[in-house]
TrEMBL record:
Residue ranges occupied by any Helicase C-terminal domain in the UniProt entry: 251-424
Stored Pfam families: DEAD, HA2_C, Helicase_C, OB_NTP_bind, WHD_HA2
CDD domains referenced in this protein's UniProt entry, alphabetically: DEXHc_DHX33 (cd17978), SF2_C_RHA (cd18791)
PROSITE patterns membership: HELICASE_ATP_BIND_1, HELICASE_CTER
Record family assignment: Belongs to the DEAD box helicase family. DEAH subfamily.
Compartments, as annotated in UniProt: Inflammasome; Nucleus, Nucleolus
InterPro entries xref list: DEAD-box_helicase_OB_fold, DEAD/DEAH_box_helicase_dom, HA2_WH, Helicase-assoc_dom, Helicase_ATP-bd, Helicase_C-like, P-loop_NTPase
Protein name: ATP-dependent RNA helicase DHX33
The organism's place on the tree of life at top rank: Eukaryota
Biological role stated in the UniProt entry: Implicated in nucleolar organization, ribosome biogenesis, protein synthesis and cytoplasmic dsRNA sensing. Stimulates RNA polymerase I transcription of the 47S precursor rRNA. Associates with ribosomal DNA (rDNA) loci where it is involved in POLR1A recruitment. In the cytoplasm, promotes elongation-competent 80S ribosome assembly at the late stage of mRNA translation initiation. Senses cytosolic dsRNA mediating NLRP3 inflammasome formation in macrophages and type I interferon production in myeloid dendritic cells. Required for NLRP3 activation induced by viral dsRNA and bacterial RNA.
Reactions mediated catalytically: ATP + H2O = ADP + phosphate + H(+)
Length: 681
């Protein structure tokens, strides 16, 4: 039997905070949706909860240099506040930057705001994400990923182009947002000291826990956009669930049999593969449920889903048909979906985890925090009262961490440290982080950079080497930058650039699960026992040979848009190479050179086959396995390098390349002298 409904989470308000009380849209009345032709866009803007607070809000924002704005997802913070500032003439002397942790969000928000302002994207409203800059000299409102603003800060530490920086989705606490907090705070102070135009900093968040933000930004006032949350009944499972996917499936069909078809279901899961698998199962089962149950449309939602398919979740389902959305944590706050009456929360999320002792960063499926669980539940009460089924017991919930640990405290900091040093931060070990990473993690990052030759330690100081400086010019992880910089030695820079680009954009391969056999048949001709990098390279070469022919892409299950992007990205990386005077040439069919170069750049991610047929990651001696998606899955190569580790039921290596152990030894003799036990001796 379901438990008593849970008390709502205690809301913490800071004394002296400013409140704007907002009326929510009436229950049952759907909020305006994108592309809703019946409601003009001006009317849609006025219907947003934030609209009523506009005069008070502007009054405050005009006076304040720092402000924290809290408001529920969908209240209109991100799309409206930049426009309000612009319309009121605040910060007109420069640009307003609005940062987003997610690339898709930056692009779609810029599109929406341009539409609301009735201008072409790239004019007044633009966006900059990695490898894509859609702005012009007219641009005043610039949506960008937090990573991009960070890169801009390397060339312009005072951020002089901007008069306002809006750090949005601050509650997500991505590593880039966290570093930006420090960079922006410093820029603000320095501009004051140097009598430059002041920089206004607005931090926006969807969750209540903001004491830390306020404290960090000179005790800045918190402006609450208080929306009315409809009551949500929370149910826990009676017993612990050993299989949350099975539990989710059962819950979906239980609701499907009992609830009216207009009540949509949102299920929080961890990633693309399990979402696609459950979607398939749901579609199969829904064909066989008893009559009178109505039909269901099952829609996946995850960051790497092509944009057209992402948009489908926002469209209403056909009449008497239930919408079931299977989503990653992207639906927690980044996007707003109307019609949700039921939330099913598996309590799991895929996130980075880092062990500074071992130096290993893995993507792992793990428990959410209480704050995340509340955020998920909240998605059910946006338009009227709703229900949240938690697939864990109340006791388990009590043991969840109260807040999500910021990413900066659980990721490999090598890239961040390199950027901070390139920013000219004098003492990276003591950077003013809002939440400090552990000293071990910082030390481990510095060791990592030292192994790559990017830094050297001299008299207790950590200094950027000339190589490190070059590495920081690439908007890439240090190991990719290093690999590119090494490639001229192996006469294969063209190939390495292609591979790095292929790995940097969203997946270029399209794998519809229902057509598994066709996919395999089409892909066979590109597969090579040299591994996934070389297979991708073969596909890319074939793509270029047919000049990106759309029909060819369809036949070969290649995502033509993302492949097209690879070409653009390559052109940009090539420009950086030319500025650094790197020799660009192709090694033609000498693919061993390419693998050798990869081995030299990525030696920290090497694994060795053991006598019993298992693999050990050489850096940490952690047992690892080849991911089933790899072309080497059936093979047993003695030595490989891998791109990333994914921890689900086991620790999987994804994207592998076959390498020769001598190359690894060549790359870092001293390091491998310690790590390598050659099984072949
Ligand atoms: O930032 P916050 O979550 O407070 O809201 P927002 O992103 O400004 O979104 C306000 C409303 O704008 C949403 O409820 C959608 O109706 C609409 N919107 C949209 O149609 N398309 C987008 N890409 C973003 C928002
Ligand atoms: Mg927002």
């Amino acid at each position: 039997m379901p438990h008593e409904p849970d008390p709502p989470p205690a809301k913490k308000f800071k004394p002296g905070s400013v409140f704007f009380r907002l009326e929510r849209n009436k229950p049952g009345m759907l909020l305006p949706k994108k592309g809703n032709v019946s409601t003009p866009i001006e009317v849609q803007r006025k219907q947003l909860p934030i609209y009523q607070a506009k005069p008070h809000l502007l009054n405050q924002l005009r006076q304040l240099q720092n402000a924290i704005i809290i408001g529920e997802t969908g209240s209109g913070k991100t799309t409206q506040i930049p426009q309000y500032l612009y319309e009121a003439g605040i910060g007109r002397l420069g640009m307003v930057a609005i940062t987003q942790p997610r690339r898709v969000a930056a692009i779609s928000l810029a599109g929406r705001v341009a539409e609301e302002k009735r201008t072409q994207i790239g004019k007044l409203v633009g966006y900059t994400v990695r490898f894509e800059d859609v702005t012009s000299s007219e641009t005043k409102l610039k949506f960008m990923t937090d990573g991009m603003l960070l890169r801009e800060a390397i060339g312009d530490p005072l951020l002089l182009k901007y008069t306002v920086v809006v750090l949005d989705e601050a509650h997500e606490r991505t590593v880039h947002t966290d570093v930006l907090f420090g960079v922006v705070k410093t820029a603000q102070r320095r501009r004051r000291e140097l009598n430059k135009i002041p920089l206004k900093v607005i931090v926006m968040s969807a969750t209540m826990d903001v004491d830390l933000f306020s404290e960090y930004f000179n005790k800045s006032p918190v402006l609450y956009l208080e929306g009315r949350q409809h009551p949500i009944q929370i149910f826990y499972t009676k017993h612990q669930q050993s299989d949350y996917l099975q539990a989710a499936l059962v819950s979906i069909f239980q609701i499907h049999q009992e609830a009216p078809p207009a009540h949509d279901i949102l299920v929080f899961m961890t990633g693309q593969e399990e979402i696609e698998a459950l979607a398939r199962t749901c579609r199969d089962i829904s064909k066989h449920v008893p009559d009178g149950c109505g039909s269901m449309v099952v829609l996946p939602l995850y960051a790497s889903l092509p944009p057209v398919q992402q948009l489908r979740v926002f469209q209403p389902a056909p009449k008497s048909c239930r919408k079931v959305i299977l989503s990653t944590n992207i639906a927690e706050t980044s996007v707003t979906i109307s019609g949700i009456k039921y939330v099913i929360d598996t309590g799991m999320v895929k996130a980075k985890r880092f062990n500074p002792d071992s130096g290993l960063e893995v993507l792992a499926v793990q428990r959410v925090s209480k704050a995340q669980a509340w955020q998920r539940a909240g998605r059910a009460g946006r338009e009227e009262s709703g229900f949240c089924y938690r697939l864990y017991t109340e006791q388990e919930f009590d043991n969840f961490l109260p807040m999500t640990v910021p990413e900066i405290q659980r990721c490999n900091l090598a890239g961040v440290m390199l950027q901070l040093m390139a920013l000219g931060i004098p003492d990276v070990m003591n950077f003013d982080f809002m939440s400090k990473p552990s000293p071990e993690a910082v030390r481990s990052a510095v060791d990592h950079l030292e192994l790559l030759g990017a830094v050297e330690k001299r008299e207790g100081q950590v200094l950027l080497t000339p190589l490190g400086k070059k590495m920081a010019s690439f908007p890439l992880e240090p190991r990719y930058a290093k690999t590119i910089l090494l490639s001229p030695e192996y006469s294969c820079s063209e190939e390495i650039l292609s591979i790095v680009c292929l790995l940097s954009v969203d997946t270029v391969l399209y794998n519809p699960p229902a057509r598994r056999d066709d996919v395999l048949a089409a892909r066979k001709k590109f597969m090579t026992s040299e591994g996934d990098h070389m297979t991708l390279l073969n596909i890319y070469r074939a793509f270029k040979k047919v000049s990106g022919n759309k029909e060819w892409c369809r036949e070969n299950f290649v995502n033509s848009r993302n492949m097209g992007l690879v070409k653009d990205v390559q052109a940009q990386l090539r420009d950086i190479c030319l500025k650094l005077n790197l020799k660009l040439e192709s090694c033609g069919s000498d693919t061993a050179s390419v693998r050798r170069c990869l081995a030299h750049g990525m030696f920290l991610n090497a694994a060795e086959l053991q006598l019993d047929g298992s693999y050990l990651a050489l850096d940490t001696h952690q047992p690892v396995t080849i991911h089933p998606s790899s072309v080497l899955f059936q093979a047993k190569p003695a030595y490989v390098i891998f791109n990333e580790l994914l921890h689900t039921s086991r620790c999987y290596m994804r994207d592998l390349c076959l390498v020769d152990p001598d190359w690894l030894l060549e790359a870092a003799p001293e390091y491998f002298g310690r790590k390598l036990h050659l099984t072949r001796t």
